[in-house]
Amino acid sequence: MHVDIVDLRQFYHTMLGHAAEQSISMALSSLWARLPEERLVGLGYSIPYLDRFRADTERTFAFMPAGQGAVNWPPGERSATALVFDEELPLPDSCVDRVLMVHSLEFAENPRETLKEIWRVLAPGGRLVMVVPNRRGVWARMEHTPFGSGRPYSRGQLTALLRETNFTPGASTEALFFPPSKIRTVLKMHGAFERFGRMLSPVFAGVIVVEAQKRLYQGLPVAVRASRRVFAPVLSPQGVPTTRQGLLPPSTK
Q1: Which residues form a coiled coil (predicted)?
Q2: pLDDT value at residue 229
Q3: Which CATH number belongs to the domain containing residue 177 in this structure?
Q4: Is the pTM of this model over 0.70?
């Protein structure tokens, strides 16, 4: 079950959320320094991290799952946000250079189908980065943050899942070595926790950050299937006549 968009946005507006964003952004920068003139899609709730790359990209989109909800982004500009089903992305084949998944894979109804769909929209040589809660970390056990919801993964599980869906796992790193505490003193020391955690106990990090590349020399089986999604209107007009008699002009007799 997805975390609601309101809860995600509120978390990143707290001191704990800001500290988590800084830690994960540092890890992402070690994998992706710049993305000059490339097309980037963020899937899940990735907008706290997309601003770091958006200035260099050709274009950047924020795709948010229907079960989570969406917000307008970037603020004050033309919206680059879309509400999507992660197994049926509204993109043609091989049209995206990079995909960033944050608060996404752990909530996917079918992780393999989601990754196969990402494989479809990635261009040849395209790269994917996933930020996923670490099943050994403390953050996956605390429900007051978004990283404590959904399905956590180990590094071995992520590697196996990527290979099954025709990706080649590449570089990886970790983040969130500080405890998910709301105490200001602890949060002010999060930088020191991050430095020492990387040296002493990377296996217990809060999240695993993995990069993978689209593999081309092996095909994926293609199965023709109808969409399993049912679209229902959220807002229905009220007071509109529905009968033929109500739509006719009044009689002139």
Answers
A1: none
A2: 59
A3: 3.40.50.150
A4: yes
